[in-house]
Write a structure and sequence with these properties.
The complex is a heterodimer. By secondary structure, chain A is of the alpha+beta class. In chain A, 23% of the residues lie in helices and 32% in strands. In chain A, strand 6 and strand 7 form a beta hairpin. In chain A, 33% of the residues are buried. By secondary structure, chain B is an alpha+beta fold. Classes of the chains: A alpha+beta, B alpha+beta.
């Protein structure tokens, strides 16, 4: 199965950046004693796996991240950049670019996995206050 | 998982188009006690299913569907790269194959408010236009969990180990459930 959600480390980093992760569609059930590997389940089904020594970490899917990313952003000069996803160098490229000038971008991230490129863009948007 | 996965009807349609959907990351199940449907990740579904549940079908997420879409399509005068953009006329998602030069053609589908639906529509169009190959086939799966990891009893010549066949029982051994369950046949058809 391909990477369906962000890793625990990526989710923790988003929480450190101050993002509300409570609406994540999936979650990890993590054992406090490390006696089993984290279990990934759909949010709402975690009660089947939780016990007294385990805890939850939300897990964003690609859809969750795309729902959080603004569809368009403006720079301090008033130029409007639109979210787009391209193939570049056989990798996934998540970009904010001018609508009619696709090569004019405010920022982009390239990765083998689309979810990782989208995650990098999400972090950048939070750091630059495009997402509260 | 609202708007996170395709519906069972959309998955059924992909089966009819000849798509082998057993690579899906999720599955849908019916709870036979109350008739409810629920979805579970294929990695951990075994905690949630039992004798009172029935496998309903494989379910694709947005990530699954994007993995199935070719990054580039080349056929006849079409030579184009996958692209997702925002349609500024309605703020919807627009999934296209953008031609690599003015000499080539691309592929466009209607923009949709829901990216999953836009990707699904593109996937269906690519199949219908022959950019994605499908095939007519049958797959036997466990009726409880949907796993293809099943075994059935059949006739074998004990002296030569030659396979005779003649299996016609509905029962199977599912390695993933570690139980005797029923066989379910999934047909991939070409309309």
């Amino acid at each position: 199965m391909s990477k369906q959600v962000l890793s625990i480390e990526q989710m923790k980093h988003l929480q450190e950046l101050g993002l509300n992760t409570s609406k994540a569609s999936m979650c990890y059930v993590v054992d406090d004693c490390n006696s089993f590997n984290p279990i990934l389940c759909i949010s709402g089904q975690e009660s089947e796996y939780l016990d007294a020594v385990s805890y939850l970490i939300p897990a964003f899917t690609l859809q969750d991240i795309l729902d959080l990313l603004p569809k368009n952003i403006k720079d301090d000069k008033g130029f409007e950049y639109f979210l787009a996803i391209h193939i570049f160098d056989n990798n996934w490229n998540v970009v904010y670019s001018l609508y009619n000038e696709i090569l004019v971008t405010i920022n982009y991230f390239n990765s083998e996995y689309l979810i990782d490129a989208a995650y990098e863009m999400l972090c950048w948007c939070i750091k630059n206050k495009y997402i509260k | 998982m609202n708007n996170q996965v395709l519906s069972l009807e959309q998955m059924e349609y992909l089966l009819k188009l000849g798509v082998d959907t057993s690579d899906a990351s999720h599955s849908a199940f019916f709870d036979l006690e109350n008739g409810d449907k629920f979805i579970a990740s294929n990695d951990i579904k075994y905690k949630l299913i039992g004798s009172n549940t029935e496998f309903a079908g494989y379910i694709y997420t947005l990530q699954d569907l994007l993995n199935k879409l070719p990054k580039r399509v080349i056929k006849d005068d079409v030579n184009a790269l996958l692209e997702v953009r925002i349609d500024i006329t309605n703020n919807n998602y627009k999934v296209t194959y953008d031609p690599i030069s003015e000499k080539h053609k691309g592929i466009i589908v209607e923009s949709e408010k829901d990216l999953l639906l836009a990707v699904y529509n593109m996937f269906v169009l690519l199949i219908k236009k022959g950019f994605i190959e499908t095939s007519k086939a049958q797959k036997y799966v466990c009726s409880q969990c949907g796993s293809v990891n099943i075994q059935v009893l059949d006739w074998v010549d004990p002296n030569t180990n030659q396979y005779i066949g003649g299996y016609n029982d509905e029962e199977c051994w599912c390695e993933d459930c570690a139980a005797h369950t029923q066989v379910k046949v999934i047909n991939y058809e070409i309309n």
